[in-house]
Fold this sequence. Notes:
A: alpha+beta; rod-shaped; B: H-NOX domain; 2 domains; globular
Amino acid sequence: MGTTFVSLKLVRKGKKMGLNNLKSISAYMKEDYDELKIAYEREKKARARAEEILETRSTHLYKINQQLSDQYFLSSKRNQEFEFLYRVTKLDGANHDIDDLFLEFLKLSSKLIWAEMSFCFKYNKKKQVLLPFKMTSLAESENSLKLEHSFYRGHFDFLDILLDSTKPVKFSSFMKDMAQVDPDFNLNCSYLFPLDLDDEERYYFWYAYPKNYELPQESLDLITNGLYQLKTFILKNKAQLQVLENYKKLKEMKSQLIHSEKMASIGTISAGIAHEINNPLSFLLTNLEVLKDYLGSIGTYVDLLEKSNTGTNTEISTMKNNIEFILEDVPNLLRESLDGIERIREIVNGLRTFSRADDGIFKEVDVNYCIETALKLVSNELKHKCKISKNLSEIPHVMGSQGQLIQVFTNLLVNSAQAIDEHGSIEVKSTINDNKILLTFCDSGKGISKEHLDKLFTPFFTTKPTGQGTGLGLSISYGIIQKHRGNISVESSPGLGTTFYIELPMIGSGE
Amino acid sequence: MKGIIFVELSEMVQEKFGHKTWNQVLQNAEPESKGVYTAAENYSDEEADKLLNTMSAFLSKSKDEVLKLFGVHLIKAFSTRFPQFFKERQLFPFIESVEPVIHAEIKKIYSDASFPKLVTYYDGEHLMLEYHSVKKMCALTHGLIKGASYHFNEPVEIEQCRCTHNGDDFCLFKISKKG
Lengths: 511, 179
């Protein structure tokens, strides 16, 4: 499309047209020139336009480039932030205790926000006490030691002003004070993040820099978020522990329930046995009484016979000696039998009380009065070997049987006295706990071993030598307290002592 | 339509028919852009159509003939502009590479470019080329095949078996090597 091409074409065209004259050629060239000029102008415009586009594109490219590098910077920052959050999340699974958890968090967060040093301290909101907790330092400088010493030397009073804040706070003023304490101390800018665990516990995470450093809002948010996560972990773990504890309690309640069931069935059996024994016991007693009378008659008869017959028949006299011996011995036999029967009767009565067969009439009873009475009853047995301490609070009356309650308390006090070998103490308390009356009988006796504890309330269980105890005392007490819709339990450490707890419902508590 | 097509069209007309012809075509067609074309910009399909119609009337050639001519020119121009797309040494592999390689590469340069869909299959003797496009510019495709055949110096016979202008769903070319 160059000029040569045009000229050649022109000459060719000129020849073809038979135009040899120079003037015509010149006119043709002029025409071609005009066309070329139009094309040239158009091309010039196109070029200008293209340059304009190029310029726009260049600017655009530059901006894109700029944006890209900004984005790269941002994304690498985001990457760090994600890694931080990810690692914080990972802290949960690692089963750390709170100390390790906070130390790990301090390490991770210090790295994220380039803190020279970080420090965690614990604040008790109720007691208003500040305690150092965990510390980490990026540079492992001496500053951490100095800071910790300062903490103990009480250079942190200034913090009182900051402690009310629930948001991250930046501060530097205290560092001037620090410089007075130690001119080498060169941490001049600090951030403080609070973490409230509950109404009482608050932790502060402190990050320090040698020079003034402006943490961007997103970093502040990030640390705050991280701390929030931390709190979630801690609360979650606490909840888990609570669940475990509840489960344990539930298990205990289950075993208690099984125990009550067992006691109830023993009660039913006992009631049956007591009833069955009572009948033969009644006629045995009557018969023996009659036999005693009869024996009197026989004795009188033998005396009369002796007076009327004074012969020396040896057979008779031997027989007489025998009869005399029998008449002498039989009253003893009868008395022993009657004592035995009396004991059987007591046992049967005890069984009936335990099995609730014997329903006393319930009235309003002052439990403290019952305790006082019981103490008086056993005072003889107690006064020489134990120091008695009474701690009776004002408690409402209960519905119950005064006699039965005195029986229970007496039984417990006698047991305690028997558990004390030489000298000890018994403490009796009455309080209100959880809307119930709680009685505590605590002795410093020899205690009860673990294997005996389980069987303590079972009828006929006793550790005393045969003949010295029926093993019914505590089972009767158990039955009585059950009848009062209460609960009796025991805790004991062998060698240290035993504590009995009795819970009784208050009047109108609906239980 | 991409500006490069308009630039090359103006190049072809000025080269083959002189500046005067192109000036006159522009004068008659009165395109919106006044003929100031740059490769970087896009121009309307109507503008292309207007130019083609005017050229057809001006050169006393059918629109299809003009398009075929233009196709031949485009291959020549592209081989200079984009030598990287002409690495194939033979015609058929080149045609087969248009859709998967060349169009994909051009898309990287002009992200807003749109292309016809091309499907090729070789039956051992002929290369069949399906051309699917709403623009219905099969004549241009014909010219492009011809231009490529010149570029690789492989004479071929091009037979159009189907055409959207005749109511077919797509256009189909049967390309057979001569001799």
